[in-house]
Amino acid sequence: MVAKPTPASTEASTTSPASPASTDPPAPTGKLRATLREFATADPRSLGLFRIIFGVFLLIDLYRRLPDYIFFYTNEGMLPNHGAIFRPMSGHLFSIYHAFSTRGEVLVAFALTALAYLVYTVGFKTRLMQVAVLVLVTSLHSRNILLENGGDVVANILALWTCFLPLGRRF
Q: Measured between alpha carbons, how far is 9 from 50 in angstroms, rounded to an integer?
């Protein structure tokens, strides 16, 4: 025979307090929740507007580099691929543009980069494009480090930080 639980034992098991082993922090309530909502959240519309402005900036920067692409990004220019790969100026350089060495290849790489920047600006597949933009913009800046300036560093940092933001919620 199986013993049936009595109503008193069932009631005691359902109303027992939470175990002391629970380590979840308490959820913010009241004034703390209102303060966090006010100061620690970002409006999705402003993030979407930032994505559009940053994407247009990246497209303009790429267009600005286009007239001198032969001199700065091909093997015919001042820094051929074998020099950048085998005698790098820094040990921390990574660039997918090292795979492109002729005029046609670099133009195709620039066109694909422009397409990625455009898709990012429009907001299609934003999470994926945020990572793609990060890789492409840092690769473009690392291909010829002699051209790098403070604006390039800021663009790299912005591209990195945008990977953690929900830029695709609006627009």
A: 59
Task: Look at the block and give the residue holding tokens 């994926």.
Answer: 128
* Nearest Cα residue to 127 out of 157, 170, 164: 164
- CB proximity list for 139: less than 8 A, separation 6 or greater: 94, 95, 96, 97
Count of beta carbons in the 10 Å neighbourhood of residue 114: 16
Q: What pLDDT, in 10s, does the model give residues 8-66?
A: 555 554 555 555 555 766 666 778 888 888 888 888 899 999 999 999 999 999 999 99
Q: Which long-range contacts (CB under 8 A, 24 or more apart) does 39-43 make?
A: 42/165
Instruction: Report domain extents, the chain.
Output: 44-162
**Cα(171)–Cα(47) distance, rounded to whole angstroms?**
9
**CA distances (Å), origin 164, targets 47, 133, 134, 135, 153:** 11, 13, 12, 15, 18
d(Cα 57, Cα 153) in Å, to the nearest integer? 14
| Residue whose entry in the numeric block shows the structure tokens 């060495």 | 101
Element (H, E) at 86: helix 81-86
Q: Cβ(47)–Cβ(165) under 8 Å?
A: yes
